[in-house]
Amino acid sequence: MELARSPMTPLRALVTECAPYELPLEMADHWLYEWLDDRAVSVNPEALKIVAKSRFDLLVLAIVGNVTFEKAFRHGEMVQARIDGFSSGWRAPASFRVRRDRARTRELELLSIRSQLNVAFLYFKQKDLLLHYVSRDRTSLRHPARVNVYGKNPANQFRQEKTAHLVSVETTARRIGTYNSYFVYDKYAFVGQFYDSREWHALEARWRFLRRLDVANCFRSIYTHSASWSTGTDFFSKDHLSGSGEGDLGQVLDKTMQVANWGETHGICVGPEVSRIFAEIVFQHLGIEIESRIRAENISHKQYEILRYVDDYFVFAADQATLEAVSRVIEITLAEHKFAINAAKTRNYATPFTTAISVKKANLKTFLRTALPFDGPLPPLDDREISVHLKAILVDSDDESATVGTSLTQVEKRLLKFVGKRASKCKTKEDAHELSKYVWGFVHDMLFQYLSHPSVASAMKVVRALRMYYLSPNLFPFPESEKAAARFRANEYVHFAVHKAIQRLAEVDGSEVEMCHFLSLAGACGIRIEPSSKLTQALLAKISRPVPKAKGNQAPIFLLLSTMKFYLSDKTTPASLRRSLMKRARATADEILSRGYTPGKIERHAIQETFVLAIATCPWLQVEEKLTLLRQPWVIDVINQEIFRGSGGDKASARFLRRCLEEFDPSVINDRAAWPTVFGWKNDHFDSLLYEKQPQFIY
Fold first, then answer.
1. pTM (2 decimals)?
2. What is the 3-state composition of the chain as percent helix, strand, coil, each rounded to the nearest 5?
3. What number is the average pLDDT over the span 656-662?
4. Measured distance CA(556)–CA(548) in Å, rounded
5. How far apart are CA 378 and CA 98, in angstroms?
6. Distances in Å between the alpha carbon of 194 and those of 39, 135, 188, 215, 298?
7. How far apart are CA 465 and CA 461, in angstroms?
8. What gap in Å lies between CA 490 and CA 123, rounded to an integer?
9. Which of 11-20, 31-40, 402-411, 511-520 has the lowest mean pLDDT?
10. Residue 524: closest CA among 563, 559, 566
11. Residue 692's CB: how many other CB atoms inside 10 A?
C-alpha cells in the first residue's frame, strides 16, 4: 500500500537507510522522519523548511545544528527554520559492538542526526546516478534495481494469527509489510536465498569447481575517495576535495561519508544501508576492471563465471587451472585498491557444491514440516526428542553461530505459522494446554541454542519467538475468563526464559545490545526483576563500568538507558535503586557532555544527541532530575551557539533548557509527531517495532 505523500517524502531515506538493524528496539523507531514530517513546510534539493512549534522543537534543532531560524523565538509563536541539504561540519558516529558469536564481535555505527539528513538529501538528489553506478556489473547478486514506492502494508502488521515475513529488504521477487526499503533490489536479499535458488543448482550442474573468496575487513578498508574513481571522476574530486560536497556523485559520496565519520577518509561507517550502497559502487567498478583483466589473460568467458554477494566472491570454473588464474586476477586487482582476501575464509569445492550444512538445512525443514503440522493430531514428540532433532544441524558445523542462526530462522518461521493455524482450532482447555506445552519445547530449545552459540541476530529471533508464545493464549477461541490459566503458564515460561537469558548475558562481554532486547521483552510482557535480586545487582554492575571514550564502545550507554527504562517505569522500584541509576546516569552525563569529550573539530557526537534527547523525553524523571543530568557544558554551549548565536551566556541558556523541559508533556510521549522518540520509554509500539526488526545482517 502506497502511503500518502507529504513534503517529507523525498527524504524518506531517513526511515530505512541510515540506522543499523542491530540497534536496541527503543532506538529503532523512525522518530526523526515522523517528527520532521509533522513540521515540514517544503523540501527541495537545497534545503528543508520546517516550523518549530515549541521551545522543545528549538532544542531538538539546536542539537541537530547548522539550522537557520527565520526570527527570534517568542513564547507561543511558531518559527520557521531552514535545514540545508548538506552540512560539512564533522560529526562523530556512536560506535557500538555486537557479538557475532562467542568469540567475535562486530563494531557498528549509529550516525549523528545531521549525518542522517546528509544521507537523505544524497538519495533525494542523486538516486538516479546511484542506480546507474550499481547496475554496471553483471556479477552482483545484491544491488539496487529501481526506486521503490513509499509505503507499507498495514494489514501485515505484527499479529500472532498472521505469518510475519522474514525479509525486510525488498527484492524484485518479494514484497514486505514494513516500511519499504528505498530501493528494490536484484536479486537476493540474503545469501541463503542464493543457495536455495534455481540459479545455484544450475551453476552446480554446469561447473566442476568453486572457490569462495571473502574480502577481509571490507568496510574499514574502503577509502571515501574511492567513490570518485569508482564513478569515473577521480580527476575532478582531487581538484575539489575542499568543496562543499555539492558537485558530482563521487564528490558528494566522498564528503558525505567523511563528515559522518570523524572527517576520516580511511574506512566508512558500518551498519547503515547507505554504506552497503557505497561499497557496491566500489565493487561494481572493481568487477568491471577484473573482467577486463581476465579478457587480457585470454581466458574465455566459457571457462569461468564470477558472482559476488556484497564482499563475497564466488568463482566457478571448468578446470583447476582456470580457477587459479581467475582467483589470482581478483586478488591482484583487490590488492591494488587496498583490499585483502581473508585466507582463513577461502573455501574450495568440487561438484556437487551443496555442502553438509545445506543438506542439514533441508533435513531440518523436512523435520519441521513433520513435527509442526497444521492439521491432525500433535506428533508424539517429547522435549528431548525435539531438542535432539534441532541440535542435529550443529553436528560437524564449521561455523556454529551461523548454523544456529539458520536453524532459529527456520524454527521461528514454521512456529509462527503453526501457532497461528492450530491455536484457533483448540476445542477444549486441555487441547490448549497440550498445544502450549508442545510449542514450548521448540521455543525453549531456541533459547538453549542461542545461549550456547550467541549472536545479536539470534537474540532477536528468540525474543520474537518468546513474544509470540507470550501472546499465543489470545488466539484460543475461549471466553476471556477461560484463558487465565494459559496466560499464567505463558507468563511463567517467558519469565523463566528472560531471567535465564539476562543472567547468562550479564556474565560476558559484548552482550549489552542483547540484554537491551531481553529487557525490552520483559517490560512489554510485564515481567519483574526484583530490585533486591542478584540479577538486578548484575545489571547494576554491568552498567557501572567506566564511561566509554568518544571512539569507544557506546553499547553500555544503550544498556544504561534500557535499564533505567525497565526500573523507573515500575512504580514499586525502591528509592535506593532509583538513586543508584541516577548516580550512574550522572557519571555518564558528566563525561559525555563535557567540553572535552570530542576533539574541537567535531561538532556533534551521536551518543551526545541520543543521551540528551532520551533523558529530556523520559516520562519517569522530574524536571529537576533531568536538569541534574543535562545542565552540562556541552548542552549549554549548543543552546548558546544555535539559539542565541553566541550572545546568550550560560545563564540564559540554562533558563532556556529548564523551560524546554518544563514544556515537555509526558502524557503524550507516544505521539511520535509531538515529541522526538529518539528512545522509546514506553512499550506501546513494542510489537510493531519487533515486527520491523527483521533480519538485515548483511556485511
1. 0.92
2. 55, 10, 35
3. 95
4. 8
5. 38
6. 43, 19, 6, 19, 29
7. 6
8. 45
9. 402-411
10. 566
11. 24
Distances (CA, A) of 7 to 34, 117, 118, 496: 11, 15, 17, 48
Angstrom distance (rounded) from CA 265 to CA 278: 13
| Local confidence band at 675 (pLDDT 50, 70, 90 cut-offs) | confident
Residues in the chain: 699
The DSSP output letter for 171 is: B
C-alpha cell, 64:
541537530
Per-residue DSSP letters for 199-243? Answer: HHHHHHHH-SEEEEEEBTTHHHH-BTTHHHHHTT-HHHHHH-TTS
Output the CA angle 645-649-651, nearest 5 degrees.
135
Cα 122 → chain centroid: 20
d(CA 242, CA 163): 51
392: Cβ–Cβ under 8 A, 6 or more apart, which residues? 360, 363, 364
CB-based burial label for 651 (10 Å; 0-12, 13-18, 19+): exposed
Residue type at 505 in one-letter notation: L
Contact 168, 697 (CB under 8 A): no
DSSP state letter for 103: S
103 CB-contact burial (10 Å; exposed 0-12 / middle 13-18 / buried 19+): exposed
Strand 602-605 and strand 90-92: pairing?
A: parallel
Is residue 239 classed exposed, middle or buried when 0-12, 13-18 and 19+ CB atoms within 10 A define those classes? exposed
pLDDT tops 60 at residue 282: yes
Sheet holding 67-69, edge to edge: 40-44, 47-52, 79-84, 67-69
Chain position carrying cell 541476530: 457
Cell numbers 534500557 label which residue? Answer: 562
Digit-coded pLDDT (tens) for 307-358: 999 999 999 999 999 999 999 999 999 999 999 999 999 999 998 887 667 7
Q: Cα(123)–Cα(132) distance, rounded to whole angstroms?
A: 13
Helix axis angle, 456-471 to 429-452, nearest 10°: 170
Is the pLDDT at 16 greater than 50? The verdict is yes
Q: Say which range, 73-87, 237-251, 451-465, 521-535, has the weakest mean pLDDT.
A: 237-251
C-alpha cell at 367: 523435520
Scored b (16 or more CB within 10 A) or e, 568-603 reads: bebeebeeebbebbbebbeebbebbbeeebbeeebb
Sole residue written with cell 510449542: 439
Average pLDDT value over all residues in the chain: 89
Are 562 and 568 contacting, i.e. CB atoms less than 8 angstroms apart?
no
Which of helix, strand or coil describes residue 571? coil
Higher pLDDT, 240 or 357: 357
CB under 8 Å to 366, separation ≥6 — which residues?
A: none
Here the cell at position 341 is 582476501
The position carrying cell 531515506 is 13
Q: Is the peptide bond before 360 cis (omega within 30 degrees of 0)?
A: no
SS3 71: coil
DSSP character at residue 246: -
486-to-159, 378, 421, 482, 490 alpha-carbon distances in Å: 18, 18, 17, 8, 6
**Per-residue DSSP letter, 548:** P
pLDDT tens-digit readout, 130-142: 999 999 999 999 9
CA gap 191, 183 in Å, rounded: 18
Indicate the angle between helix axes 113-133 and 606-616, nearest 10 degrees: 130
